[in-house]
From TrEMBL:
SUPFAM superfamilies: NAD(P)-binding Rossmann-fold domains (SSF51735). Residues 1-117 form the NAD(P)-binding domain. It comes from Strombidium rassoulzadegani. Pfam families: NAD_binding_10. It comes from the Eukaryota. PANTHER family: FLAVIN REDUCTASE-RELATED, OS06G0360300 PROTEIN. InterPro entries: NAD(P)-bd_dom, NAD(P)-bd_dom_sf. This is NAD(P)-binding domain-containing protein.
Length: 127
């Protein structure tokens, strides 16, 4: 229950089980339907801010990265990136004030600096 919260932070994600043939159902249920339902519940409850922790390459197809190894490997887990993208689009269309974070691997030492900006999508490409 959201109760009287003014902000929702959604950092859910399905965990692949032993049965690899059910990964698609699990990704759909958690990363798509579950997140969409939470967005709708937040809107109904009058939440003022929704933060969605998604995944790097969620919009990989839109960036022309559908054939990249990173996209293929990650999306092989039940089409999870495609399911997350549906939820992201639903959040964007919801009318809620939102932030979508698409974390990737952290490779460098902590710098102590944090930067904020408007909508920014980028990817690394070998030239």
């Amino acid at each position: 229950a959201i109760g009287s919260a003014d902000t929702v932070i959604c950092a859910t994600g399905f965990v692949p089980g032993i049965n690899i043939f059910k990964m698609g159902e699990q990704a759909h249920a958690v990363d798509n339907v579950g997140t969409v339902n939470l967005v709708d519940a937040a809107k109904q409850a009058g939440v003022s801010k929704f933060v969605l922790v998604s995944s790097i390459l969620t919009n990989g197809r839109g960036w022309g990265q559908a054939d990249s190894a990173g996209f293929k490997i990650t999306n092989a887990f039940g089409g999870v990136l495609d399911e997350k993208l549906v939820a992201e689009k639903h959040l964007k269309a919801s009318g809620l004030d939102y932030t979508i974070v698409r974390p990737g691997g952290l490779k460098n030492e902590q710098s102590g600096k944090l930067a904020f900006s408007g909508e920014l999508e980028f990817y690394q490409k070998k030239l």
